[in-house]
Task: inverse folding
């Protein structure tokens, strides 16, 4: 395989991923990165396949009755994915596709590094401010970092962008409000979630 032929390498990796071998797909991409360390496409694929491999390990462990904590092997693979995504993110100065930015932010949060996720989110919304899904991920990071007011404002922005499903956004905002003691605000957000078909009416607090 020609190390410089990104298209062929990507196609081979894609076939392996389709067959369920995400780690194998990652290894194919990593071989290419040895000679082209800053290739945008290869870094993107590496982040994607690393995340998919990690998720597969996590779900397999859950099926076997493991605890809710991320297993060590899955965590290591998530770290691999994050490292590739961060390199891509830095090369592009935060200007990456919204699904990539979202995946990076939520994965860093899942790895219990909320302050780092907040900083990544801040840069991501500066570059992709029109993306609701990026704002939603940023809001989640802010909430996990106990920056309640900023998280609520970010959820409002995500909802206003209206380019991503409203399902869950109002509810996530309500959960943050409820945790902070703002019962009235939480009730209003739960009602908004109900009207957006984001959850059933009986899941909302009593009005």
Result:
């Amino acid at each position: 395989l020609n190390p410089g032929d990104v298209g062929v390498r990507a196609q081979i990796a894609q076939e392996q991923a389709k067959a369920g071998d995400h780690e194998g797909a990652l290894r194919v991409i990593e071989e290419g990165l040895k000679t082209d360390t800053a290739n945008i496409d290869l870094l993107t694929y590496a982040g994607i396949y690393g995340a998919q491999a990690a998720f597969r390990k996590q779900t397999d462990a859950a099926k076997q009755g493991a605890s809710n904590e991320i297993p060590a092997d899955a965590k290591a693979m998530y770290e691999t994915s994050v490292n590739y995504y961060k390199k891509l993110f830095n090369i592009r100065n935060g200007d990456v596709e919204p699904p990539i930015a979202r995946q990076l932010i939520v994965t860093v949060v899942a790895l219990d590094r909320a302050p780092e996720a907040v900083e990544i989110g801040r840069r991501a919304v500066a570059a992709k401010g029109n993306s609701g899904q990026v704002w939603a991920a940023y809001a989640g990071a802010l909430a996990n970092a106990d920056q309640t007011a900023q998280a609520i404002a970010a959820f409002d922005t995500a909802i206003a962008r209206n380019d991503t499903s409203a399902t869950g956004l109002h509810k996530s905002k309500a959960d943050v409000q409820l945790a902070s003691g703002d019962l009235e605000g939480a009730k209003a957000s739960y009602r908004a979630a109900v009207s957006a078909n984001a959850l059933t009416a009986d899941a909302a607090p009593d009005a």
Summary: DSSP finds ten helices and no strands in the chain. The radius of gyration is 19 Å. The longest helix spans residues 40-63.
